[in-house]
Hints:
The protein has helices at about 15-20, 95-110, 150-160, 170-180, 220, 235-245, 265-275, 290-305, 355-365, and strands spanning about 50-55, 55-60, 60-70, 115-120, 145, 190-195, 255-260, 285-290, 310, 325, 330, 340-345, 350-355, 370-375. By secondary structure, the chain is an alpha/beta fold. It has 2 domains: about 15-35 and about 60-305, 3-Layer(aba) Sandwich (Rossmann fold); about 310-375, no CATH class. A 6-stranded mixed β-sheet has the order 5-4-3-6-7-8, with helices on both faces. It has a 4-stranded antiparallel β-sheet with strand order 1-14-10-11, covered by helices on one side. Helix 2 (about 95-110) runs parallel beside helix 8 (about 290-305), helix 4 (about 170-180) packs parallel to helix 6 and helix 6 (about 235-245) runs parallel beside helix 7. It is elongated, with a radius of gyration of 21 Å.
Amino acid sequence: MSHRSYAWVVIAAAAAVGVACGSRTGLLNTDPPVVVGKDAGPDAPVVTCTPGTFKLDRAAAQLMFVIDRSGSMRFLLDGTDPDPNGTLPPRPDSRWRILQRGLDPVLTTLEGRIEIGAKFFPDPFDPGGGSASDACIVQSTADVPPKKATAADILGVFDATRPLGGTPTADAIKSAVTYLKNGARRVISRYMVLATDGAPNCNDALDFRTCVCTQVDVNTCRQDPQDGPSRCLDDNRTVQVIQQAADTEKIPTFVIGLGASDPVYARTLDRMAVAGARPRTGSPRYYEALSAAELEKSLTEIQASISECTYVTPSAPTDPNAITIEINGARINRDTTRQDGWDWVDQNYGQVALFGAACDAALRGGEGTDVKGTVSCNK
């Protein structure tokens, strides 16, 4: 959005229509999911309680990157706009190119182990024609559907398109969730990483007279009843959409912020990170990237948190504590802070995840790791 704004892991002109919706940060054949384990069909039933000890099957993982392609992604990390007219290709030191380079090693590491896809927003548009609303369009399709070996396809979108338009983050998250839900299976754990450099906007329902304007000149909002609302900070709706994805659809979101800080935008990013159920410990709650090195560090931390340690049990108790988890015979404690131990991901469908040293222990053993759950149904 602006040179004062941040980005998350979901990403923003040119003159005229590009600036209109881009704000100060600026304003673009599906394989079936890999299924493992039992009861993996799309209509897999809610898991009921059966007492006993059961082997837990590891779930496959899907990760969708939701990437800001708004006009301000051409800015440098310090907020400098090297191309105010938005006519030149993004510079090597632009947020756009730094994100592309930062993603390269992460995608290469993960692509052979989990299914990875990408949704870029807004959709590409012609800044020389149409209306300002064109700079806020988000289609329901994924730019790269989640599957194995997609690193080259995702990185290629950075070369094939350029940052331009508004920051319709809420609509991009909705689109990504819809896509992931269409391929949902009980034994697939799903995640989103939202990467953005600015505050969300593109909500025509906001009051342009009283909103927080995401443009440098607030009169761009205040004096334009037609397009002003789309330039307003769309924080509450975006937080609600992210929280619904985590709470209802069980799809958590990691949030990465690229660029210079602004207190209002930083608070928005913090709220989004908490709503996404995968915040950092400490402050800020989102993954901060004020330099290329910080971006690399943030992506590495997120990579380590994308669970290859989600398991499914064929029996789930009504009482969330009426199950004990063991790895190779050693009992693992439940940790609702998700630092070191296990916790429910979706109790109704029997999904649990291991975190910290517990996850490390499970991965060390490879396919020979014996993860079991003992369930009691009398509580």
